[in-house]
Amino acid sequence: MVAVAPILVNGLVISSLYALVAVGFTMIFGVGGTINLAHGAVITVGAFAAYSITSAGFGVWAGALAAMVVPAVFSVLLYKGFAERRRDNVVVVMILTLLASIGVEELVRIVEGTQPRAIPPLVAGTTNLLGTTVQNNLVVVFVLSWVLIGGLFGFINYTNTGKAILATSMSTRGAALVGIESDRVNLYTWAIAGLLAGLAGLFLGSYQTASWAMGRDPLVLSFSIVVLGGLGSIRGSLVAAYVIGFLEVITTSAVDPRLSGLAGLVVLVAVLLVKPEGLFGREFTEA
């Protein structure tokens, strides 16, 4: 008989991590209309930035700082090097970011090897929750993920920079008419997406392990989440992250661990065939 409580706990935690990844992914698409295929590699960069700092003897919270700063800078470099120069050609940006992703993964594989690396948990100890023993680290990961998501919504809705991002996502031309610089807004968006993905890498590494290809599955699932939620819809991405996350956990826990990633692909194909606009559709107008 399958235990429900572990599935519920793992589903909540992994879905919150997928939400962090998917929100950044959909922000880049919603604001700039480009698809960043290096988004999964940003997760890997965040995880190994944290691993390097903690392995050097610094605390895990210093590693958390590295997991924010390094991926954000890396994401900004991706934008300045690739997306900004070729923003009118989505296919070229996809190819360039895919090549960057492969390069990052190979570099990590060469430097760190293929063995999974353990990142220390953010906090130690366990808690009894829903009749099952849960690591305190998982509780903290879940809470921090939603603090970050809530902070992002507050930033978007209540700051001038956030409102500029929202305006640009609605209409680049309209935003330009009121003096908003789309290049700067896109730069901010890529930096935010990188920060969120980097922290997701840290959380995933402390929850499971870090490896050179750890960003691949989250990237594929991000496609499923974004399509299911509706292209450009942050709200849709949050809802879809929990749908995909729980399907993933149920499939691997109750059916077969080797089926990891299958649920997301099935949902992706089904949505594209039945409801290609997703649950919430696209929230942004054309430029």
From TrEMBL:
Transmembrane regions: 6-29, 60-79, 91-111, 138-157, 187-207, 219-245, 257-274
Location of the protein in the cell: Cell membrane
The UniProt record lists the keyword Ribonucleoprotein: no
InterPro entries: ABC_transp_permease (IPR001851), BCAA_transport_permease (IPR052157)
Keyword list, A-Z: Amino-acid transport, Cell membrane, Membrane, Transmembrane, Transmembrane helix, Transport
First-listed, main subcellular location of the protein, grouped into a coarse class: membrane
GO molecular function, a single term: transmembrane transporter activity
Pfam families xrefs: BPD_transp_2
Gene Ontology terms describing biological process: amino acid transport
Protein's name in the database: Branched-chain/neutral amino acids ABC transporter permease
Species, as recorded: Halococcus hamelinensis 100A6
Source taxonomy: Archaea, Methanobacteriati, Methanobacteriota, Stenosarchaea group, Halobacteria
